[in-house]
Amino acid sequence: MNTNRGISAHGSSNTISNNAVGNHARVVTMPPEERSGVPVTGSVEPTDRGTWDIGIVTILSEELRALRDELKLERHKEPGGLYFYRGEHSTPDSTVRIVATQTQSQGQRSAMAALENLRRHYTPRLWALVGVGGGIHDEHAQIGNVIVSTEVVYYENRKINPLGDIRRRGEHRQAPAQVVHAVNAFFTEHGTPARIHGQLTSRSSQEYEVYPGLIGSGEAVIADRESDIRRYLAHYNEKVLAVDMEAGGLSQYWQENSIHDEMNPGWIVIRGVSDNADEEKGHAHHELAARNAAHVLRLLLPFLC
Length: 305
Prior knowledge:
By secondary structure, the protein is α/β, with parallel strands linked by helices. It has a single domain (52-304), classed as Nucleoside phosphorylase domain (Rossmann fold), CATH 3.40.50.1580. 27% of the residues lie in helices and 27% in strands. It has helices at residues 32-36, 61-71, 108-122, 177-190, 228-236, 247-256, 286-304; strands at 54-58, 74-77, 83-90, 95-102, 126-135, 146-149, 151-154, 158-160, 166-168, 171-174, 194-197, 207-212, 214-217, 240-244, 266-275. The longest helix has 19 residues, at 286-304. It is globular and about 55 Å long. The N and C termini lie far apart (74 Å). Residues 27-47 have low confidence and may be disordered.
């Protein structure tokens, strides 16, 4: 009896895969990127698979520049074209690995996209939104002061009734307990308010104050002291000290990722007050507020990590 074994191929450009010949033969496959050494198109592989402690989202170039200078971060470009700023910072108890990025634009949606980019490439253990915001509390949120927030009030949801009657429906989210405890420990050590020397050379002899408090967040740029949004937030909770356009997206992103099996990072918002959300709102104090916020993050690192 004749027994034919083997594979015969005639012609050119033949491709044979996942075949086995002979008794007890089996097919062992491996991912295409391991066979060729080239990642599959569309896949995202972290440049460094080690642990990244904090992933920071900024909105303005002044904010990212302040963090770069304060934490000695270096620019890094991922193969897909995204830019990140990375570095390590030593605390008394550990070395903290930090990665920061900048959104493409203002607002909740762009902030959530930046968080997703950080998650896909670096999977940090803590999210931080660091930069400038508008103060709406005359006593605490003066220009140059910093608000550290573990609670966000998203004010954008609303119902518009006939005759233009608007009923706002706030959403209130709090950071995980371990982040709240870390912030409480910071203020226990530094006092409430914490009084810190200014970070700009022109302000180094002056002190600014750091307060814990709520952040109001929505899509509106508020430049009116009589705004109905300011009145709503003051009525909702008198401890809402500042407003921004991204913290709601951060808290929403965290909430929706809570269902995944992997660890869901904690989050924190640090806002330097650059204006008072009124008619004088402008860019004059962005650098001051951004540098103070970046410095407060550095002071918080031993408590957060």
